[in-house]
TrEMBL record:
Domain DUF1330, first and last residues per copy: 2-95
Top-level lineage group: Bacteria
Coiled-coil segments on the chain, per record: none
Pfam family, one: DUF1330
Name under which the protein is recorded: DUF1330 domain-containing protein
Amino acid sequence: MPAYVLVEAEELDEERALEYRALAQRSIHQYGGVYRLRGVVPEAAEGTWPSPARVTTLVEFPDMTRLREWYGSPEYQHAKAVREGAIEVRLLFAEDRTE
């Protein structure tokens, strides 16, 4: 079953954020991930979105096992270290059980 990483992020340091994005992208592709949404400001149909500075990214992996391999990988751990203080994030993992 496909598994997804939903990311809510706010950039704090543009230069370091660019470095993080490049590292994260390489690691995501290396572990079979595909971007489905990238850096979009969602339209709130109900309720409120916290800020136009917060963006959403959605990444699809073949399954939860592969997603967790990516998340724990040395490649992504390095990207996370670069991200520290550059981007404030919230990550959610979800498995598609509709199939």
